[in-house]
Amino acid sequence: MDLILKYFPELTALQRERFEALEPLYRMWNSRINVISRKDMDQFYLHHVLHSLAIAKVCRFGPGARVMDVGCGGGFPGIPLAILFPEVQFTLVDSIGKKIRVVDEVVRSLGLTQVETVHGRAEQVDARFDYVVSRAVTEMTPFIGWVWNKLDSGDGAGTMPNGILYLKGGDLQTELSATGKRYKVFDIATFFEDSFFETKRVVYFPRNQKVVL
What we know:
By secondary structure, this protein is of the alpha/beta class. Helix content is 38%, strand content 18%. Helix 2 (13-32) runs antiparallel to helix 6 and helix 4 (44-58) packs across helix 5.
């Protein structure tokens, strides 16, 4: 928790309580349904919670914004972002039922009433969103194909125009060029000091490709 407070000192008492509750909840559920590796569980707040919150350093979602987390796994980045933005509507999507079961239980335990879950694929979700977030579920070209028509092209739902905010690491140049989309890359190491983030990035694709980046 000290790590989260270091970079997000403005948290309310309820937000702190919810962030503090995350690790014991995930340890309990992970012992029953393995959704996080043991190694990562030992670095839970660094590898999962803070990594997810890097998106908030790029874009602050406004009240009423609609955000879909595609391939949410055990709930990342969606659950940490939902704690940080309690007035934002989140839809967490994953095709693996056991992962959605864990997400449902964590959401219920935390009282995140603005979060809904979908057991299925993003292409099957019959709704539109201001933002899509995800954490390296596949290469970016197919991912964009799954979600592009789910995005509204407005510019008033947050501090960035509507679009995709994608967490991914490594050398991304070839993959990004293949998308055929305009994008902007944010190095997470400029937000957070730990060496874990040295090669990790947030990639932003605005839905309106004419916006100034």
